[in-house]
Amino acid sequence: MNERGKLLALAVIVSLLIGAGGMYAGMSVFTDQPDDAVAEGSAPLFPAPGEGVELSEEALVKFGKAYQLINERYVEAVDEEMLLEGAIEGMLGTLEDPYSVYMDRETAQQFMESLDSHFEGIGAEVSMTNGNVTIVAPFRDSPAEKAGLQPNDQILEIDGESIEGLSLYEAVLQIRGEKGSIVNLTIDRQGVNDPIQIDVERDEIPYETVYTDLIEHQGQKVGVIEITSFSEDTSKDFAAGLNQLEEQGIDGLIIDVRGNPGGYLNSVDEIGNLVIPNNEPIVQIQDRSGERVRYLSSLEEAKPYPIIGVIDRGSASASEILAGALKEAGGYDLVGETTFGKGTVQQAIQLGDGSEIKLSLFKWLTSAGNSINEVGVDPTIEVEQPAYFYLSPLHVEDDEMLEYDMINQQIANAQEMLKGLGLEPGRTDGYFSSQTEAAVKAFQETQGLEVTGKIGAETASALHQQILEEVRDEANDRQLNTAIELLLQQISND
Q: Which residues are known to be catalytic?
């Protein structure tokens, strides 16, 4: 490529950054496909790439001089392609936006080849937050969830190697791997002093996103639809599930988007058309100039039964759109915790050589026009799960022991686990007291383990497995049970 060609390439890059059309909301890094849905009857908020973009000659000359100076006179030979990519990454870096990222040709190709209706990995949505690869939410029943990864966990190392300097996509490709293989993640978790080591066994992750259930309680039929993410088929599967529940004569509906990291904007829009009444806005999309497009529901009348949403800190992006619409446009209650707080819309833009930029083009606002970015959607009924729902697994090596008179965070976690299992450890501050020792002995006895009162690798693993069973038991799900009780109350009031 000659010098003029290189300058033209840089100009094209800048024009793409300024004027690209299309949109999608909160895409999982595992389904990073553009969604070209535009609100019916509206004009695109952005011109086509390069349209209406003017770059001053002064800017181009300055850019070209810097490129030429480095390329021709730097003390060592420079790789021209790396120089161009560095310019792109530098421009994106000035945005300080964790969701606007660049993938070179090789990374983009590897990433696209790995996308399917299923993939092999750990099953978690991640984003780049303040320069750190951060867990948004583990998928339901995924290896990541079973291993104890939690929203806002920051990944410091993969298999003992620092990931500082890696892009989000480079880190994801390292985390993925063959089914049955183990990846060790070093995690920084808020409220925990030392980094946590978590081993995750990779598995095949199916991309089923809608689960339905019918709960009969106090003579009433409660339908539950859980949405784990918003993929291409999610709205179709939601419609089928809702139709099936309605045919069974449900008296009320719970829509559960806990741990849902987001997905296609058109998918959540289509679901909103099924449950948000009176042609209210499901979501509003706002461009850089402040101009807005409203996505209006096509549902004329409210459903003949009450609806309640269930949310948590792992509900992000598209799931926050649905939660906000249920609360503000539908007037329905939300039970749970404040959501993650991702309120921007990205578009994947090809750069012509196989590389691409995923750029934030819009802000999305709730039905009432509120921004939730870095704020989240608040529940109307705040309910936290039992403390043991939020614990990280114990990491005790074969030659290690947690025992009487020690004090650390691992012991505090073990005490919360014992308490959750109905074995009173006396305290939960991390000091291994005599009462904690007695609780450990009682647990070991019930599990058929050697009764030592000390926590080694075997006891730690058994504790983790028992806590997982407690977490999966719906009887312990305070948020879901609160939603059910509230729904029954509303049914009786009707």
A: 317, 342, 346
